[in-house]
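[job 4471] stage=fold_predict status=RUNNING
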Amino acid sequence: MRTTATPTPTHCPYCALQCGMNLTPAADGTVEVSERADFPVNRGALCGKGRTAPAVLASSTRLTSPLVRSAEGPLVPASWDEALGRIARNLARTRAEHGADALGVFGGGGLTNEKAYTLGKFARVVLGTSQIDYNGRFCMSSAAAAGVRAFGLDRGLPFPLEDIPRTGCVILVGSNPAETMPPSLRYFTELRENGGTLIVVDPRRTRTAEQADLHLAPRPGTDLALALGMLHLVVAEGRVDERYVEERTAGWEDARAAAMGHWPEYVERITGVSVPELREAVRMFCAPEAAMVLTARGPEQQSKGTDTVGAWINLCLATGRAGRPLSGYGCLTGQGNGQGGREHGQKADQLPGYRKLTDPAARLHVAEVWGVAPDSLPGPGRSAYELLDALGTDIRSLLLMGSNPVVSAPRAAHVEERLRSLDFLAVCDVVLSETAALADVVLPVTQWAEESGTTTSLEGRVLLRRRAIGPPDGVRSDLEVLHGLAGRLGVEKGFPTEPEEVFEELRRASAGGPADYSGIDYRRLAEEGGVFWPCPAPEETAGTRGDRHPGTPRLFLDRFATEDGRARFAPVSHRPSAEEPDDEYPVLLTTGRVVAQYQSGAQTRRVDELNAAAPGPFVELHPRLAARLGVAEGDPVAVVSRRGRAVAPARVTAGIRPDTVFMPFHWPGEGRANTLTNPALDPTSRMPEFKVCAVRMERVV
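[job 4471] inference complete, writing structure tokens
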């Protein structure tokens, strides 16, 4: 039903592109999505998820009343006062009986900057616990750790997406944007139209790989060896930018020595990528004046993800392809606010502004903003999986916002058991997710279109989401939840419910930090359509505000964010995955997404159009493997790992390696892919090894 109401310009609630869209309330109570061509990232284009996003706003698909666990067992409706009171009493009881660190807080990469900031403050100031982390740990943490190690700073992309079509070559490692963020595919199409080349590294011939000039299909878990083999050839063929290395980097000799142990034939045996393909990839990457390497979850979600990303960064540094126009390394952040979510306090070891929790100066600065003593702030806590693994033992009560680990966490059945073993679980969510269904109290909260707030896209562009409609009766915002709980736990001030007021405090807390937002405000975001951080506040001069800082769309052009301004090579070598195939489990499993679903599917699985396009899980396998199993297209097949068993229909395709199977992870039930995945952690980033584990295949009769 059409309406003449004024459209509200805002952004999609899903991936880190944060595509621009217009929302218009219709007379029948629905919300219409229309093109917003002025936003430069998507230029009006939207994927199916974005077009159908308003479907989850309907009262019929979401929670509209708090739920509490009754004495008889089921969740039943309750008043807000009863629900908040029950949460506060149980958190207080746990703290009194077991100490503050028996309280856990688990957040999400979809929370706005205001919510992420307030959740981190709530954990440390109100609860006094160190045990806070978020599901973004499962997304970009390896790339973040490698970026900080190499450049002194982590921002998903150190340049805007608009630079991609203007470079000469892009190596896209473990990413399938044709399905994960479809509006971004135009940048790679335009790259090729402009005469540039695209190399895709993926064990599957995805829709993205089909667009590539060169597709390299390594064995899962061997991306590190592949990058080192390419660097070996760069050295052997005399393609090192010696002047750049001398003037702008440190640590080259050790990294060079490590790479030289990875000669092409050795790398071919490890990866399955032929020597001619390796040589062609090096030639294509080094031929133009400018080039980029972009990674995503493929190389990052490994127990050696930090070193793997570091090896790809080494390739950029050795060839002079970082900190120069139209060149560099970047990470394609996944979740909607995965970037901002880790900058402002949800992560176990960080304070707002991307400050380190162990830095005394950082603690002092943030404590002054919060009005507390620096010594009162707890130290770093457990990473995401370690926190989930400790539930029911060291951690007795959990407050969870914006995450569904029953489906999305590695070794998911074990995580579900841990959640069930808690003394108390409270969940804030839009829908009754698989995790919320286990809770003692469930609070219905507002969605993206029903509240204002900021997010930070994969480009490091801070954006303003605007409220377009009001929420249903009985629904409150996460900020109102934290305000209500803080008051009931004895902290009456410091937890405002208005997002802009929270952002003003966030600006002060981030000032002077690596992710400095102090020069950004809501008015500016509305006027400019987004601002790239770092963006420090202008100095006050004679009582008047100086010129605005323009923001920083391109990092590192003059110097890197290290003490001496030089980028650091990482002396890394290939090592096996935590779990290699053997006689009992001879096949490799890798996981990922499909275009019509998002993350754990808690919201997209409630949209009819998306379910029609992707109704359930499947197992993708090569015809040779299918023939050995006696399996045909559509037959049920079981995938079994040391952690569990999943069953789904077979999808037989020559577009995957014969030694590998693929499962999307959006669904619960018997096709829950993360029942199988390995929680082995990267020693630096604490990223679980989602992308490779050993399995066996069984024909289901």
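[job 4471] summary: The longest helix spans residues 80-98.
[job 4471] exit 0
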